Design the sequence.
RNA sequence: CGGGGCGUAGCGCAGCCUGGUAGCGCACCUGCCUUGGGCGCAGGGGGUCGCCGGUUCGAAUCCGGCCGCCCCGACCA
């Protein structure tokens, strides 16, 4: 019974004590993932994978609804293909894993384990595109990729990770730009409405853009420790890859032109983002829309509860399931208090307690994970009421996260003020920026903060750069980031 | 790649300094008892002490080497 005020869960480091350890504790204790024998690689356990599957479904539906189709490109890429786009190679070569042997023999040409698929996709698109009628190509793939990382953390950065990567080809720059922004909106919508995680949409600086892209856009979120996390990126590749891979088409005006490309992706990192956005000292808190179980039913009773209470609990479970609610019934031989703590740790949005007293009153007791409120709910019309409550939890989580983010977003008008605000763990600091890489780098040296992005729709600032006296070119959001 | 820490039961750790039959808590198994916030009692199973070598009558412990993992910083989703 230690930690009574902290929510009854032991073996989790309090967030205030060590956020990073708290995160690792939650991942382990909630059985989301486990370390594998290979450094930097993790096993995504069933509960963690179920969350990913729900995120995946939400994305997949939307990606298809915007006209894209899924396909699959191979894991191995001949080394020479990766080297076709100069900036791209330079960006990725330190992180690439190679296959040197196969079938007991050394390979004539080493194979790259894809760190991303632009090279192989570009190679294929060159074969598939002849004329303007072949465009656009709108392909997405769900895949694993490998990037040899020096520092890894479960979900946030692992050597191998799962993601979705879209690769499109268009006739004009206007189309590729529209596509890039359309996907950025799609990502933001999924993060906000499904993950209940507010994000800032914006453009990356030159130094932070994708290797080989013309422009990179990102969505940025603020985690519970006030550090920023890049939650997704969408790149307008311009004609860079088309030129490197010779993807040409005959245009409407009979001229031969290079296609305009885009690529965009989100990863299993989103699972980590959800943990760090909503979790508390008792463990995970899952937004209902991605909770593998939205409701857990816990039967309560004396030694004969299996006879007296369980049938009613089963009936309730069946009723909720029939109404399309993801529900589980915990009929293990454990004490109720133990089960409460266990399901709180796993972040189940609603716990439904049913005991003799409730049966008498023809009601159930519903406990909300987000607010810890306990509410008596009549058995009559239960499913409808539960759906309302799930919607309310979803909204509450988003509102809470947005209030947290807004509360930690400040504006700096002088460099002194900027540096002062960046002390400790401040969240976002908004400032005008001249656009020079030198200022960006100096800010990083002075404060450890990086330019997260330049939000879309910000008015062009009229004043001077927060760091130098040159005229400001853009409004930028800075933060210490993951 | 730099800095730090740690490898002893599934998990968390003690034992190491000062060598002498490997321990604690949780978890697990059996039984009883209990059940509206991680009950209680009794019994039980489980470890080549990261690996290799050395010193010694004897090494988890001392010495040398290696390997691995975690955390924090520079680079990246």
Sequence:
């Amino acid at each position: 019974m230690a930690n009574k005020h902290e929510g009854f869960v032991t073996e989790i480091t309090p967030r205030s004590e060590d956020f990073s350890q708290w995160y690792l504790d939650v991942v382990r204790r909630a059985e989301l993932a486990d370390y594998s024998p290979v450094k930097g690689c993790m096993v995504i356990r069933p509960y963690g994978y179920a969350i990913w599957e729900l995120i995946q479904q939400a994305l997949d539906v939307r990606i298809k609804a915007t006209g894209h189709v899924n396909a699959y490109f191979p894991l191995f890429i001949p080394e020479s293909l990766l080297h076709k786009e100069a900036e791209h190679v330079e960006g990725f070569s330190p992180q690439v894993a190679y296959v040197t042997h196969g079938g007991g023999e050394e390979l004539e040409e080493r194979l790259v384990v894809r760190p991303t698929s632009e090279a192989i996709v570009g190679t294929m698109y060159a074969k598939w595109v002849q004329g303007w009628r072949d465009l656009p190509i709108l392909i997405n793939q769900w895949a694993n990729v490998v990037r040899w990382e020096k520092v890894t953390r479960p979900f946030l950065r692992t050597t191998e990770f799962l993601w979705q990567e879209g690769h499109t080809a268009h006739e004009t720059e206007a189309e590729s730009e529209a596509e890039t922004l359309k996907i950025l909106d799609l990502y933001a919508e999924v993060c906000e409405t499904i993950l209940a995680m507010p994000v800032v949409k914006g453009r990356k600086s030159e130094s932070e853009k994708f290797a080989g892209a013309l422009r990179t856009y990102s969505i940025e979120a603020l985690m519970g420790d006030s550090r920023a996390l890049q939650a997704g990126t969408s790149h307008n590749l311009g004609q860079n890859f088309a030129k490197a891979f010779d993807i040409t088409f005959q245009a409407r005006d009979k001229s031969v032109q290079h296609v305009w490309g885009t690529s965009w992706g989100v990863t299993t990192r989103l699972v980590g983002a959800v943990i760090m956005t909503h979790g508390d000292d008792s463990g995970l808190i899952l937004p209902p829309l991605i909770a593998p179980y939205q409701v857990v039913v816990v039967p309560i009773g004396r030694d004969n509860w299996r006879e007296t209470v369980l049938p009613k609990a089963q009936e309730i479970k069946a009723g909720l399931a029939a109404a399309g609610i993801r529900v589980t019934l915990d009929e293990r031989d454990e004490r109720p208090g133990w089960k409460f703590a266990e399901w709180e740790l796993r972040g189940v949005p609603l716990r439904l307690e049913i005991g003799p007293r409730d049966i008498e009153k023809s009601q159930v007791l519903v406990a909300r994970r987000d607010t810890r409120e306990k509410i008596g709910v009549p058995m009559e019309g239960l499913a409808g009421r539960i759906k309302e409550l799930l919607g309310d939890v979803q909204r509450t989580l988003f509102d809470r996260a947005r209030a947290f983010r807004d509360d930690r977003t400040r504006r700096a008008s002088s460099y002194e003020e900027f540096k002062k605000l960046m002390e400790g763990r401040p969240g976002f600091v908004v400032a005008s920026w001249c656009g020079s890489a030198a200022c960006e780098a100096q800010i990083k040296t002075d404060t450890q903060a990086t330019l997260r992005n330049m939000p879309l729709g910000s008015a062009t600032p009229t004043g001077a750069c927060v760091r130098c006296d040159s005229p400001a070119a853009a409004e930028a959001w800075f933060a210490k980031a993951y």
Chain A has three domains: 4-278, 293-389, 409-479. Confidence is low (pLDDT under 50) at residues 1-9 of chain A. The CA atoms of residues 288 and 392 of chain A lie 9 Å apart. The longest helix of chain A spans residues 382-407.
